[in-house]
Amino acid sequence: MDRKVFLGAIIALLVVAAVLTAGCVGTQSEKKTYIVGIDGDYPPYSYVDESGKFAGFDVESIRWIAEQEGFNVEIKAVAWDGIIPALLGNKIDMVYSGMTITPARAAQVTFSKPYWSVDQGVAVKKGSAVTMDQFKAGDVTIGVQRSCSADQYIQSDDFFGQAKYDQMVKDGKIKLYDTFPQSMVALENGLVQTVIFDDVNIKDYIKAKDAIIILGTIPTGEEYGVAMRNGDTELHTLINNGLTKLMASEKWNELLAKYIIEA
Protein backbone atom coordinates (compact mmCIF):
# COMPACT_ATOMS: atom_id res chain seq x y z
CA MET A 1 0.00 0.00 0.00
CA ASP A 2 1.19 3.51 -0.77
CA ARG A 3 2.48 5.13 2.44
CA LYS A 4 0.53 8.35 1.80
CA VAL A 5 -2.68 6.38 1.25
CA PHE A 6 -2.04 4.35 4.40
CA LEU A 7 -1.44 7.46 6.51
CA GLY A 8 -4.52 9.08 5.04
CA ALA A 9 -6.62 6.08 5.98
CA ILE A 10 -5.29 6.13 9.57
CA ILE A 11 -6.03 9.85 9.92
CA ALA A 12 -9.55 9.35 8.58
CA LEU A 13 -10.18 6.57 11.11
CA LEU A 14 -8.92 8.74 13.94
CA VAL A 15 -11.18 11.59 12.89
CA VAL A 16 -14.21 9.27 12.79
CA ALA A 17 -13.33 7.88 16.22
CA ALA A 18 -12.99 11.36 17.64
CA VAL A 19 -16.34 12.40 16.24
CA LEU A 20 -18.03 9.29 17.63
CA THR A 21 -16.45 9.80 21.05
CA ALA A 22 -17.45 13.45 21.08
CA GLY A 23 -20.97 12.40 20.19
CA CYS A 24 -21.12 10.00 23.13
CA VAL A 25 -19.83 12.60 25.54
CA GLY A 26 -22.26 15.15 24.19
CA THR A 27 -25.20 12.80 24.67
CA GLN A 28 -24.27 12.23 28.31
CA SER A 29 -23.80 15.94 29.03
CA GLU A 30 -27.06 16.80 27.31
CA LYS A 31 -29.06 14.72 29.79
CA LYS A 32 -31.16 16.94 32.00
CA THR A 33 -30.09 17.12 35.64
CA TYR A 34 -32.69 17.32 38.41
CA ILE A 35 -31.79 18.34 41.96
CA VAL A 36 -33.30 15.93 44.50
CA GLY A 37 -33.96 17.32 47.96
CA ILE A 38 -33.68 14.89 50.86
CA ASP A 39 -33.59 14.85 54.63
CA GLY A 40 -29.94 13.93 55.16
CA ASP A 41 -30.61 12.31 58.54
CA TYR A 42 -33.61 10.11 57.84
CA PRO A 43 -32.59 6.42 57.79
CA PRO A 44 -33.45 4.08 56.20
CA TYR A 45 -34.79 6.33 53.42
CA SER A 46 -32.12 9.02 53.08
CA TYR A 47 -28.98 9.73 55.05
CA VAL A 48 -25.22 10.27 54.86
CA ASP A 49 -23.31 7.02 55.34
CA GLU A 50 -20.00 6.49 57.17
CA SER A 51 -18.02 7.38 54.05
CA GLY A 52 -19.84 10.70 53.71
CA LYS A 53 -21.97 9.63 50.73
CA PHE A 54 -25.74 9.88 50.37
CA ALA A 55 -27.45 6.54 50.84
CA GLY A 56 -30.80 4.97 51.64
CA PHE A 57 -33.90 3.42 50.12
CA ASP A 58 -35.05 6.63 48.44
CA VAL A 59 -31.57 7.68 47.32
CA GLU A 60 -30.96 4.38 45.55
CA SER A 61 -34.48 4.48 44.14
CA ILE A 62 -34.12 7.85 42.44
CA ARG A 63 -30.69 6.96 41.07
CA TRP A 64 -32.14 3.78 39.54
CA ILE A 65 -35.11 5.69 38.10
CA ALA A 66 -32.80 8.35 36.64
CA GLU A 67 -30.74 5.70 34.88
CA GLN A 68 -33.84 4.01 33.48
CA GLU A 69 -35.55 7.23 32.39
CA GLY A 70 -32.46 8.93 30.96
CA PHE A 71 -31.73 11.88 33.24
CA ASN A 72 -29.11 12.82 35.82
CA VAL A 73 -29.66 13.60 39.49
CA GLU A 74 -27.87 15.70 42.06
CA ILE A 75 -28.71 14.85 45.67
CA LYS A 76 -28.96 17.75 48.10
CA ALA A 77 -29.67 17.63 51.84
CA VAL A 78 -32.15 20.27 52.97
CA ALA A 79 -33.55 21.05 56.42
CA TRP A 80 -36.93 19.33 56.57
CA ASP A 81 -38.96 22.31 57.77
CA GLY A 82 -37.68 24.28 54.78
CA ILE A 83 -37.76 21.60 52.10
CA ILE A 84 -41.07 22.54 50.46
CA PRO A 85 -40.10 26.25 50.36
CA ALA A 86 -36.83 25.12 48.73
CA LEU A 87 -38.83 23.20 46.12
CA LEU A 88 -41.20 26.09 45.43
CA GLY A 89 -38.22 28.47 45.27
CA ASN A 90 -36.57 26.35 42.52
CA LYS A 91 -33.60 25.44 44.73
CA ILE A 92 -34.46 21.76 44.24
CA ASP A 93 -36.64 19.99 41.67
CA MET A 94 -38.24 17.28 43.79
CA VAL A 95 -38.44 15.94 47.33
CA TYR A 96 -37.76 12.19 47.39
CA SER A 97 -37.29 11.41 51.06
CA GLY A 98 -40.15 9.55 52.70
CA MET A 99 -42.55 12.49 52.42
CA THR A 100 -46.09 11.66 53.51
CA ILE A 101 -48.82 12.80 51.14
CA THR A 102 -51.04 15.16 53.15
CA PRO A 103 -53.82 17.56 52.08
CA ALA A 104 -51.80 20.55 53.30
CA ARG A 105 -48.76 19.56 51.24
CA ALA A 106 -50.86 18.54 48.23
CA ALA A 107 -52.28 22.07 48.19
CA GLN A 108 -48.76 23.36 47.43
CA VAL A 109 -47.14 20.65 45.33
CA THR A 110 -47.93 17.72 43.04
CA PHE A 111 -47.18 14.24 44.37
CA SER A 112 -46.20 11.17 42.43
CA LYS A 113 -48.10 7.94 42.79
CA PRO A 114 -47.66 6.49 46.31
CA TYR A 115 -44.72 4.12 46.69
CA TRP A 116 -44.82 3.19 50.38
CA SER A 117 -47.16 3.15 53.38
CA VAL A 118 -46.37 3.59 57.07
CA ASP A 119 -48.06 3.97 60.45
CA GLN A 120 -46.96 6.02 63.43
CA GLY A 121 -44.85 4.27 66.05
CA VAL A 122 -44.28 5.32 69.66
CA ALA A 123 -40.88 4.55 71.16
CA VAL A 124 -39.92 4.35 74.87
CA LYS A 125 -36.95 3.20 76.88
CA LYS A 126 -37.01 -0.47 77.80
CA GLY A 127 -38.49 -0.91 81.27
CA SER A 128 -40.50 2.30 81.05
CA ALA A 129 -43.82 2.31 82.90
CA VAL A 130 -45.40 4.60 80.29
CA THR A 131 -48.55 3.28 78.63
CA MET A 132 -50.17 4.11 75.29
CA ASP A 133 -53.16 5.52 77.19
CA GLN A 134 -50.86 7.98 78.96
CA PHE A 135 -49.26 8.91 75.65
CA LYS A 136 -52.61 9.51 73.97
CA ALA A 137 -53.77 11.60 76.93
CA GLY A 138 -50.66 13.77 76.77
CA ASP A 139 -49.58 12.80 80.27
CA VAL A 140 -45.94 12.16 79.26
CA THR A 141 -43.21 14.18 77.54
CA ILE A 142 -43.08 13.60 73.80
CA GLY A 143 -40.21 14.12 71.38
CA VAL A 144 -40.94 14.63 67.68
CA GLN A 145 -39.23 15.99 64.59
CA ARG A 146 -40.44 19.48 63.75
CA SER A 147 -42.81 19.69 60.73
CA CYS A 148 -42.79 15.95 60.02
CA SER A 149 -46.02 14.02 59.48
CA ALA A 150 -45.95 12.77 63.09
CA ASP A 151 -45.76 16.37 64.28
CA GLN A 152 -48.63 17.32 62.00
CA TYR A 153 -50.64 14.30 63.14
CA ILE A 154 -50.48 15.10 66.85
CA GLN A 155 -51.53 18.68 66.04
CA SER A 156 -54.59 17.46 64.15
CA ASP A 157 -58.11 17.13 65.51
CA ASP A 158 -57.65 13.35 65.25
CA PHE A 159 -55.19 13.54 68.15
CA PHE A 160 -54.47 16.47 70.52
CA GLY A 161 -55.85 19.28 68.39
CA GLN A 162 -54.05 22.56 67.77
CA ALA A 163 -54.89 24.31 71.04
CA LYS A 164 -53.76 21.44 73.27
CA TYR A 165 -50.68 20.85 71.12
CA ASP A 166 -49.63 24.50 71.37
CA GLN A 167 -50.06 24.45 75.15
CA MET A 168 -48.03 21.24 75.46
CA VAL A 169 -45.21 22.79 73.42
CA LYS A 170 -45.34 25.87 75.65
CA ASP A 171 -45.26 23.70 78.79
CA GLY A 172 -42.38 21.57 77.51
CA LYS A 173 -44.54 18.44 77.25
CA ILE A 174 -43.87 18.30 73.52
CA LYS A 175 -40.27 18.91 72.50
CA LEU A 176 -39.48 19.63 68.85
CA TYR A 177 -36.24 18.50 67.21
CA ASP A 178 -34.69 19.30 63.85
CA THR A 179 -34.19 15.62 62.97
CA PHE A 180 -35.65 12.27 63.95
CA PRO A 181 -32.32 10.91 65.32
CA GLN A 182 -32.06 13.96 67.61
CA SER A 183 -35.42 13.07 69.14
CA MET A 184 -34.28 9.49 69.71
CA VAL A 185 -31.05 10.63 71.37
CA ALA A 186 -33.20 12.79 73.65
CA LEU A 187 -35.20 9.68 74.54
CA GLU A 188 -32.03 7.71 75.26
CA ASN A 189 -30.77 10.52 77.50
CA GLY A 190 -34.03 10.81 79.41
CA LEU A 191 -34.95 14.26 78.09
CA VAL A 192 -38.31 12.91 76.85
CA GLN A 193 -40.31 9.84 77.82
CA THR A 194 -41.60 8.99 74.36
CA VAL A 195 -40.93 9.66 70.69
CA ILE A 196 -43.51 9.46 67.91
CA PHE A 197 -42.39 8.89 64.34
CA ASP A 198 -42.93 6.67 61.29
CA ASP A 199 -42.76 3.06 62.48
CA VAL A 200 -40.27 1.91 59.81
CA ASN A 201 -37.77 4.56 60.86
CA ILE A 202 -38.09 3.66 64.53
CA LYS A 203 -37.58 -0.04 63.76
CA ASP A 204 -34.48 0.79 61.74
CA TYR A 205 -33.08 3.04 64.48
CA ILE A 206 -33.55 0.59 67.35
CA LYS A 207 -32.37 -2.55 65.54
CA ALA A 208 -28.97 -2.26 67.23
CA LYS A 209 -30.18 -0.59 70.43
CA ASP A 210 -31.46 -2.87 73.19
CA ALA A 211 -32.38 0.08 75.41
CA ILE A 212 -35.31 1.29 73.28
CA ILE A 213 -38.50 -0.50 72.26
CA ILE A 214 -41.69 0.31 70.38
CA LEU A 215 -44.46 0.83 72.90
CA GLY A 216 -47.21 0.75 70.29
CA THR A 217 -48.31 1.68 66.80
CA ILE A 218 -51.05 4.06 65.70
CA PRO A 219 -52.53 2.87 62.38
CA THR A 220 -52.50 6.01 60.25
CA GLY A 221 -51.88 4.36 56.86
CA GLU A 222 -49.81 7.27 55.59
CA GLU A 223 -48.54 7.07 52.01
CA TYR A 224 -45.19 8.34 50.77
CA GLY A 225 -44.85 10.15 47.46
CA VAL A 226 -42.33 12.22 45.53
CA ALA A 227 -43.17 15.94 45.71
CA MET A 228 -42.70 18.16 42.64
CA ARG A 229 -43.78 21.62 41.51
CA ASN A 230 -47.26 21.74 40.03
CA GLY A 231 -46.16 22.86 36.58
CA ASP A 232 -43.38 20.30 36.08
CA THR A 233 -45.53 17.88 34.07
CA GLU A 234 -42.59 16.31 32.20
CA LEU A 235 -40.92 15.45 35.49
CA HIS A 236 -44.20 14.11 36.91
CA THR A 237 -44.40 11.66 33.99
CA LEU A 238 -40.75 10.61 34.33
CA ILE A 239 -41.09 9.92 38.07
CA ASN A 240 -44.39 8.04 37.81
CA ASN A 241 -43.09 5.93 34.93
CA GLY A 242 -39.88 5.28 36.87
CA LEU A 243 -41.74 4.29 40.03
CA THR A 244 -43.94 1.87 38.07
CA LYS A 245 -40.87 0.22 36.56
CA LEU A 246 -39.00 0.18 39.87
CA MET A 247 -41.82 -1.40 41.86
CA ALA A 248 -42.18 -4.15 39.25
CA SER A 249 -38.44 -4.86 39.11
CA GLU A 250 -36.04 -7.06 41.00
CA LYS A 251 -34.30 -3.88 42.17
CA TRP A 252 -37.37 -3.12 44.31
CA ASN A 253 -37.04 -6.44 46.11
CA GLU A 254 -33.33 -5.80 46.62
CA LEU A 255 -34.07 -2.41 48.21
CA LEU A 256 -36.73 -3.87 50.48
CA ALA A 257 -34.37 -6.59 51.67
CA LYS A 258 -31.53 -4.09 52.19
CA TYR A 259 -33.35 -1.26 53.95
CA ILE A 260 -36.84 -2.05 55.17
CA ILE A 261 -37.43 -3.84 58.49
CA GLU A 262 -40.89 -5.35 58.64
CA ALA A 263 -40.71 -7.28 61.91
From TrEMBL:
Tell me what organism the protein belongs to: Methanocorpusculum parvum
Q: Does the keyword Lyase apply?
A: no
What UniProt keywords apply to this chain's record, in alphabetical order?
Signal
Q: Which residues belong to any copy of the Solute-binding protein family 3/N-terminal domain?
A: 33-263
The protein here is known as: Solute-binding protein family 3/N-terminal domain-containing protein
In terms of domain of life, where is this protein from? Archaea
